[in-house]
What does this fold into?
Amino acid sequence: MTNDGIFEAGNVTLQSGAVLPATRIVYRTHGRLNAARDNAILYPTHYLGTHDSNAWAIGPGKALDPDRYFIIIPNMLGNGVSSSPSNTAAPHDGPRFPLVTVRDNVLLQHRLMTEIFGLATLALVTGHSMGALQTFQWGALFPGMVQRIAPFCGAARTSRHNWLFLEGCKSALLADVAFAEGDYAAPPTVGIRAFARVYAGWAWSQTFFRRQLDREALGRPDMEAFLTQVWEPAFQAHDANNLLAMLATWQAADISADPRFGGDLEQALAAITARAIVMPCRTDLYFPPEDSEHEVAHMPHAELRVIPSIWGHMAGGGLNPEDAGFIDAVLRELLAR
Amino acid sequence: MTNDGIFEAGNVTLQSGAVLPATRIVYRTHGRLNAARDNAILYPTHYLGTHDSNAWAIGPGKALDPDRYFIIIPNMLGNGVSSSPSNTAAPHDGPRFPLVTVRDNVLLQHRLMTEIFGLATLALVTGHSMGALQTFQWGALFPGMVQRIAPFCGAARTSRHNWLFLEGCKSALLADVAFAEGDYAAPPTVGIRAFARVYAGWAWSQTFFRRQLDREALGRPDMEAFLTQVWEPAFQAHDANNLLAMLATWQAADISADPRFGGDLEQALAAITARAIVMPCRTDLYFPPEDSEHEVAHMPHAELRVIPSIWGHMAGGGLNPEDAGFIDAVLRELLAR
It folds into this structure.
């Protein structure tokens, strides 16, 4: 059973100090909350994703079994479903949409969990990529509420190299004069196309392409066909300001950006007391396992489980059955603890 | 002793079948050719490089010792010094400059070696990045002439992932309407800036930035300062059509694109009979060691020597003394064989 809902959060003061009026989080739930209210799992969305994008990991017989758990998927701010540049009224529309942080998302999700669902505990928070950023943030902000976390292909803080990769994507989009500083009349399709092409080089591993998995697994005869028929349309489906708003959220992600931690990442990691399994992909070009090793070393109840895949960052996207199976097995193991 | 020269090659029929009129290769030499004419070393240039860019590896006491060797640095076509979009007359100027391949470069260099210097043998061909592409091509085309090759941070064939990374850079530049399909009145600085920013994410490794070496080694207080003060100006110094011409050369690089080999890379690699040491950098994001392992496995007298550096592709650029020392030691060892 799935249900969709909208959490009207009203005027929200963001981490930056700016106020976003009439903020809304759109969410989908799978399954039912039990009487003890202790079977809830939170599964935030990733970059370009919506509640639909997480569906692959949920189903009867899977770790995220809706017959057993109440799984809540909140759409990340900026994704075009929850409050975003594209659906917010003036004067906060388009390029005037304020910077939203991962922390802002998590604080709103916390209100959704408590005010709407009356939850005092979460059995698990998990997520891919920016969903993993939110997962780490949950662990650091609400250690008393989160029993387990399982971030995959993500990080507690966006690395400087990851920031730079994103900056490259952004600069490609901004190079299109049609972007018009965000006040475009028609979508800046040339810039979005460039954005998509830059991004494509990062999403999988070198080995993925060496073994021609883009042909075998993604079902296109050559790279150009893949780019023009699959990859670019996925980006063109998004509003350009939304792409940049989520990118800014990503670039700013840092669980240590908190008065309690004062920018000390190790201290912030130490605050994540939930039982945790951190799953980087061995070949992820933006969240390499070395960063995860550092995180796990400073988290009191965490362990590292590297996804042994050549799918790079996309190992967490659900397209490759082997990787999906690996993640599912780890989630099952963690939930059994 | 250095000397500069210009090789006027006349009308050159390129690998594509197109004819480039009045083709010229500008070159610099260090040292003197000995009486036996057997002390010549060829050291082609890399992307964005000129004869100046290779100077770091040459000097008394180094492997490339001008007191002992006659070192020839031919500027790659498209680099703005040898024949390039920016310095070629109509109708082959700007965006009408034909596709030049690595093979075209090497065939012209071969004419320079034989027609101008009267050489029948080369003690060594070596080069970084696109210089390495040319080095592999020399080995495959002229096995009887080349005694040794030492390509570093390069490949015998541009990988599909490498092609994609370059395609991303290109699309960022093309997103600037000021590029005007190559017939720009003023340089498309916004597009070149985007090109540079996209490129920056690839040039070093994730670890390089994690350890903040951009601050320590490149001497800038933060990433933005590095990008705007160092990295972008290096790209803005180049003509946009030149950037794209060299990029097209790179994307097309393939020693097996030869009637003798018919696209069979293993067969082409087997033709490289020179004593070879192939030096990928452990953390190079565009020429990862796995590709080099495959190359070496199919070359009859080759061995792999991985540069143990976190400088990524830039390990071959001469900026890091440790990497420069590693390469120098390997060149010395190879020359002693």
Summary: Chain B has a mean pLDDT of 97. Residues 2-159+254-336 of chain B form a domain with the Rossmann fold fold (CATH 3.40.50.1820).
